[in-house]
Amino acid sequence: MVRIRTDKIAGQIGSLGEFIAGQRRAAQLSLRQLAEQSGISNPYLSQIERGLRKPSAEVLQQLAKALRVSAETLYVRAGMLDPDDHPATSVEMAVLADMAITERQKRVLIDVYTSFVSENSKTATSAETANVTMSEPN
Which CATH superfamily is 1-87 part of? Predict the structure, then answer.
């Protein structure tokens, strides 16, 4: 039974490394560039990508920031979070996975999307406040 868990964890680490390598290539970054941007040593990053090392949550967070993906996505890939409890934002994931656009275009699209979501959230909050104010007796 323990061996199955070990194999499962090893498979998740391998797929995590492959995912990180794929995201790095999609961002058109060299291994050295990603290591520098994330503050992780070049050899350690290479070992993560090859599935030889299991990175900590802190290292995953640094990688997520440098790759412009959510830390939760990497945590799920690493087996630290249950994927059913943490579904990825489909819009952001679709943009990040699209190979037809540049990294700069991805950043711009995600920034625009985030601003729309934020604006709609503020509008909804303002509308709720107005409704509460109107419904209160004077």
Answer: lambda repressor-like DNA-binding domains (1.10.260.40)
